[in-house]
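Journal club prep, notes for RB
We'll compare a predicted complex against what the paper describes. Inputs for the magnesium ion case:
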Amino acid sequence: MTMQTYRQALHDTLRTELLHDESVILLGEEIGIFEGSYKITAGLLSEFGPARVRDTPISEGGFVGAAIGAAMLGMRPVVEIMTINFSLQAIDQIVNHAAKMHAMFGGQVSVPMVIRTPGGGGQQLAATHSQNLEVWYAHVPGMKVVAPATPADAKALLTAAIRDDDPVLFLENLALYNTKGEVPDGEQVGQIGAAAVVKQGRDLTVISYSRAVSIALEVANQLERDGVSVEVVDLRSLRPLDRETVCASVRKTSRAVVLEDDWLSYGVGAEIAATIQEGAFDYLDAPVRRVAAAEIPLPYAKSLETAALPTAADLVKVIGEVLDATRFTR
Amino acid sequence: MTMQTYRQALHDTLRTELLHDESVILLGEEIGIFEGSYKITAGLLSEFGPARVRDTPISEGGFVGAAIGAAMLGMRPVVEIMTINFSLQAIDQIVNHAAKMHAMFGGQVSVPMVIRTPGGGGQQLAATHSQNLEVWYAHVPGMKVVAPATPADAKALLTAAIRDDDPVLFLENLALYNTKGEVPDGEQVGQIGAAAVVKQGRDLTVISYSRAVSIALEVANQLERDGVSVEVVDLRSLRPLDRETVCASVRKTSRAVVLEDDWLSYGVGAEIAATIQEGAFDYLDAPVRRVAAAEIPLPYAKSLETAALPTAADLVKVIGEVLDATRFTR
Amino acid sequence: MTDPHAGVAATAVRQPEPPQIWRDYYQQMSLIRAFELRAAEMYQRAKIGGYCHLNVGEEATVVGLMAALAPRDYLFTTYREHGYALARGMEAGRVMAELFGKSTGVSGGRGGSMHLFDQRLRMLGGYGIVGGQIPPATGAALALTYRGEPGPNAEAVMCLLGDGTTNIGSFHESLNLAALWHLPIVYVIVNNGLGMATTVEHASAEPDLYKRGCSYRMDGVRVDGNDVIAVRDAAREALTRARVEHKPTILEAVSQRLRGHSVVDPARYRTAAETERLRSHDPVHMVRARLIDDGVLDEDSARRIDESAEAQVNAAVAFAEESPDPDVATLFEYAYATPVPNTPHRLPADPVIAGGMAGS
Amino acid sequence: MTDPHAGVAATAVRQPEPPQIWRDYYQQMSLIRAFELRAAEMYQRAKIGGYCHLNVGEEATVVGLMAALAPRDYLFTTYREHGYALARGMEAGRVMAELFGKSTGVSGGRGGSMHLFDQRLRMLGGYGIVGGQIPPATGAALALTYRGEPGPNAEAVMCLLGDGTTNIGSFHESLNLAALWHLPIVYVIVNNGLGMATTVEHASAEPDLYKRGCSYRMDGVRVDGNDVIAVRDAAREALTRARVEHKPTILEAVSQRLRGHSVVDPARYRTAAETERLRSHDPVHMVRARLIDDGVLDEDSARRIDESAEAQVNAAVAFAEESPDPDVATLFEYAYATPVPNTPHRLPADPVIAGGMAGS
Ligand SMILES: Cc1ncc(C[n+]2csc(CCOP(=O)(O)OP(=O)(O)O)c2C)c(N)n1
Ligand SMILES: Cc1ncc(C[n+]2csc(CCOP(=O)(O)OP(=O)(O)O)c2C)c(N)n1
Ligand SMILES: [Mg+2]
Ligand SMILES: [Mg+2]
């Protein structure tokens, strides 16, 4: 075990995979000389050279598409898109091409490409630079979408994503890069398609992913002291979605709240709530509630941005309402 | 009242609005000389000339973005994107620009643009040309998304969309163009943001939109004869979403099934099911079920395509399961 | 109207081609023509669905390009690619079976007319999204730079696109990358004068499309797409530059579409005179007549070639007819290349969680 | 490294500029410099959040362009636009207030540094998505073609973009439309040599960016971005062509970024020598020195100008400081321009349907 930041875990994993497999290459804007907008690739250009760590022009559609073609010939490109907001420039290549090829061409080709990209608001980057659009990719067959919440999961899932033969959208989050956690040493290959119960509890289940998991855990631990036993499920993988782990937890606790950073309507939480009401209907004592971002282009002003984004206080409030609605006595 | 096809209703409405307001212009690929891939704009070029009915190069991002800029200066562009699959080329302009400007610039500008585009599978157009991606746009604040199911609604909602000052994604469907219905004569301005109960019923509510509504009605009428009274809610507007109309219906029937053409996971039906379980929890006798497309890039082969897409038979089967689960006796 | 000869580098006097080469090219052109006409017929008879775009009128371009492309090279095409598939060596039966959506089709019936693919022949797909093939083709060329040194025996990539496709962003982004990174690729613009009903002049502010590499310092050449030898030689030159110098090239082949955009398009936007003019330049008829003039063929041998093409197409249709539809049980077979848990294998009426319904 | 003079059309000997003009330009440059340095300081003091990109080093380009742009013209800029906002006539206080995220900001505090907007001044936005402003600017020019005839008094559009932005698809698609449709627009490429840390040569296969209109038969000119008069005159010429001939133009201003990409970028990728060289070409210092040499200003009057710039910036900061934060009650104020039922006005902890919770 080593204590590491999420950033360091990503960096070390990229380095390990570059060493481990010659066909792994990195592409993206400013990943080389600039060492990455968020410094994930620091030092990799000087260690591996410009052929394996390739700075690209500002052409997301072009270089993501180029990564797809390289992957079709057996390379394992890991592309960095500076933020998920810019992935819209490449989404035709990702969704209409990478996600389609294996099935549409009858299994003759696969696209072992990883797209690393951070989402998230809260940095006062305003409406166009603060989005959480992972639900779009999670909706698309042929894609795999993972959203690690901790440095350890970042390492394990990035390793799995790079070694996987399908296109994987690897969701990071601006607010996670500096967070720390214990990371197991040596090779760790995570399981794409599996969620995890990251805290056991009896009274209520909070389902979350990526950055929001840390808030869910913080709240869970706080409520523990008030005599409420909250279980926390980290989805880890948005596509495939591990419905069974989610429903199994709710069948046990009979209460559920989703905490998500994206907009409420048609967001990730909608699928989770829909899944629970179908998969644990007879066990639910109250409606599944969703704590999500206000539905407005995120304003720059701190006062408005803070009001629009979900917080620990919001989660505590909603958990309280669910408990009250079910006459839970502390 | 006149009996018209969905195509004719769209055509006549575009013509009426071109006559009604000088600032209305049409842009799109092949809408002029070719008269539209699906002939919606037949005759409009010769009547209104190339300045008002403008053929564009194959540059979805460019001409949708140009429509946004024209709208910022007070024009009312109505853009045709040949199918929603190609809207991915323009999605940065739609979502990061059109949907953001009014709020991000503090209300100083608005973008009165309509994007008309058909979705839908079932035509053997294969994986890249058969998608239903409306849920992506419905997720985005700043957008309005309407999905008329009948010629009458097509007329009323297209009129409303063109006269609305916000960007509206107007969802059509390849399978709807030749369908017929009664269309009221004279000016009809529909209500964006409102759903409608299109068939009254007591025992179960089917919620649907666009093409799938006709299947829901067909099934409802068939089951009526078997002594099952099915209510059908046509969402009409995906954003804003009229949750109250949906929940009010389910509070009455206590059973709900969603019929949607898109993929199940993170699709439109997820939000509907999530909404119902929260807004009608105490009234639900069984889980909300979703009938949706199989989650696979849609194959070309007819045998596989048919198996992957929802049918009336699928809806009948699922309704039956919901009734049985609630010990409904015919 | 694009002049097929404007900007064409005057090529040195040609060596006469051996008769066998000419016969081979004519056989291919005749097969493509017969295949396409039959495909149109089969579409009318509802044996083929979806969209169906034909190479009728482009046979000389197709055969010339495929004659230049080596087996070791990679090919990316558009949705108008039946002829390329045949000339690249796919069996007519398996191509027709793909159009019929049968399990024996080159893409297992999953892709259809627009998505012909053969890993063995290094034809990496037909693509239905305009411009969609350009970035992946460019990336395939990038992959080649990791494989081996430049040289006459190196591999290269050929990427086809239409005239209308030069106006989409992926064209710009990809060509810039190819020039910047010195990639071994040839971008072939098949200029048939139209994108659906839109003329080149109506769509491209620089209608001399071979010049559009100027923004990337990329050389461009134009050839008469009806001249199979000129097309082949220009493509060979460009491929050699790609192999030896890792320099990308634009090759514009001025060709023509004798039919509508797709089988269902009556092309009413074209005048009778224009259609007449095109017919009089039918590349298949021109080559046939010329070979008879030159004594390479006589009426009999030419007819025999056409008949054997017909026979191949008959056999292809028979094979497609007899082939089975894909089994519905295989619907999810290619969901992922690497299987992972919880992959949804759900039919439209299935519950989200197997094990069925709860209820009160 | 781009030679600011390569490709520059030798302009006829210039009329000397009236001293008042020079003083005015220097005042603007001095104000922009003072504003930007203060913005950097305020960012360090956490008064400003998000991203903050400065025009430090680009003042001559900014002032020259804005001197050429008429009040009736429309302006679309990038996220590096504080200087343009000031030179276009926005009050320094309201610009600083926007950077502070205050309700008195030019965009009501909703946009921040990257999204300055003023409908009255026809500055239709800063844009944070690379290339995002190019299609809307092109569409604004399209709208002008419906408004009135071409002529010396017609309106036109100026669209700014950076050197790195010439490689994105929207650049290609938009310029093709502008040339094809004869739109009254000037595309100004502010070539400061870098996109973040990427040089022009590393990003653009044709690094002479003014030539990149070749693919659209669009004229391009390059000017020395440190020469405020040359920039102004070239922009005027291009704007006149837009007004009178409805012909779009590329204008490349070779400029420089004296700071990092944004306030938080230490620009370690630049050598000390390079930084030195740039400093020695600081346009504000150069103009100041020149005006003193020419006797247009003396040390005193120059200092007074700089002091009044400082004073304006002090006042701007004071105004921003005192201005209120946007009221949380106004969060949903601009949800839509046309209100419709069921628009979600929901805070993160609210239920989806007001009227609260059911439960058993
Ligand atoms: C992104 C996108 N936009 C639009 C279309 C619809 N479409 C299919 S083919 C075509 C015309 C293409 O013309 P060209 O590039 O000249 O090729 P040709 O059909 O003439 O071979 C269009 C507009 C598409 N498939 N993809
Ligand atoms: C589509 C998109 N991709 C990437 C970015 C991140 N980004 C912001 S500015 C920038 C560099 C732009 O360089 P240039 O066009 O030269 O403008 P400059 O910053 O030099 O003024 C990049 C890559 C973005 N904002 N949008
Ligand atoms: Mg064409
Ligand atoms: Mg720059």
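Talking point for the session: DSSP finds eleven helices and seven strands in chain D.
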